[in-house]
Amino acid sequence: MRLLVTGATGQVGWELARSLMPLGEVVALDRAACDLADPQAAAAVVAGYAPDVIVNAAAYTAVDKAESEPELAHRINAEAVGALAGTARGIGALLVHYSTDYVFDGSKDAPYTEADSTAPLNVYGATKLAGEQAIATSGCDHLILRTTWVYAARGHNFVATMLRLFAEREALRVVGDQHGAPTWARNIADATSSLICWARQARDAGDPVQQTFNLSAAGETTWHGFAEEIRRVAAQRWPEHPWKVRQIDAIATHDYPTPAARPQNSRLDGTRLADATGIVMPHWRDALLRCLEDRPAP
Ligand SMILES: NC(=O)C1=CN([C@@H]2O[C@H](COP(=O)(O)OP(=O)(O)OC[C@H]3O[C@@H](n4cnc5c(N)ncnc54)[C@H](OP(=O)(O)O)[C@@H]3O)[C@@H](O)[C@H]2O)C=CC1
Ligand SMILES: Cc1cn([C@H]2C[C@H](O)[C@@H](COP(=O)(O)OP(=O)(O)O[C@H]3O[C@@H](C)C(=O)[C@@H](O)[C@H]3O)O2)c(=O)[nH]c1=O
Ligand SMILES: [Mg+2]
């Protein structure tokens, strides 16, 4: 089996190169090799490898910046995804794609299921939703995996930002009224590997695979709760580091103005995934511990 990964230098893309290795030949393409800002060219590059599975881990993920670059974000997160889906359809490949909690407006009082109505609050969320819809329209075999609050030992993420700020500032203010589950990129990549095996069995049996699954860590917290836990684990892991932080205040969203609006509720219900495949994601606290064990000193 040949598996092609786009966005190879991203958090999820990087972990996929390792997690997918046991499944076959992995072709991992970074932005220079496959630029989604040129959808037709990117799709042609992918088709040239004739992969059995296309895993699209590339995306425009700068949530605030997307508000002022909506066309570029749409080209990468929607048009290029449609082009990849067209390629997948043409060559009979399975397309695995990632989406986000930001397709929802966050007004629901409970975790979101895959059947809930979408209503993105920001440009990034709208472009990701358009990407999902382009895949569905194409008719290709696909897995759309919605995840949340992704972090990893490398790359740009909330954990890296907090570790930097904890050494720079005595006091931090972090929003405590947005609820969700921080998800380790390695857990996403490992689950993706299992899901590709699951999909392969179904396809070998002649069943089409056209599914959307929630795929985020077990448990829930707020960004403030996440920040507190990062501080606790980091203080234990690197006691000699010159930490400055003494206080992390929980604030309301309206006291942390940003260009893009964010949902209050980002919680995703993992029941469909567990029922269909048996996959249950690790708890976010356990995953954070493992990730920081794995990480070089800040
Ligand atoms: N990060 C998060 O919190 C969440 C992410 N997701 C989704 O999960 C998926 C993986 O995200 P994650 O790994 O966290 O994202 P990252 O921001 O860590 O990585 C994104 C990757 O996409 C690449 N990329 C950006 N623009 C282009 C382009 N024009 N052509 C080709 N590659 C490009 C980046 O390349 P370069 O390194 O060159 O910039 C990078 O490798 C995405 O679909 C994202 O929308 C869903 C929920 C939460
Ligand atoms: C740095 C910082 C952030 N915050 C807030 C802002 C925001 O509400 C929250 C998280 O900040 P971030 O910029 O990391 O969040 P953001 O980039 O919006 O994270 C999102 O990225 C996209 C790609 C997704 O798909 C989502 O699932 C989600 O992970 O923390 C503070 O309150 N205080 C701070 O000091
Ligand atoms: Mg961000």
UniProtKB/TrEMBL annotation:
Start and end residues of each RmlD-like substrate binding domain: 1-294
Cofactor info, note text: Binds 1 Mg(2+) ion per monomer.
GO molecular function: dTDP-4-dehydrorhamnose reductase activity
Keyword check for NADP: yes
Keyword Oxidoreductase part of the UniProt annotation: yes
Cofactor: Mg(2+)
UniProt superkingdom: Bacteria
Pfam families membership: RmlD_sub_bind
Protein family: Belongs to the dTDP-4-dehydrorhamnose reductase family.
Protein name, as recorded: dTDP-4-dehydrorhamnose reductase
Species of origin: Denitromonas iodatirespirans
GN (gene name): rfbD
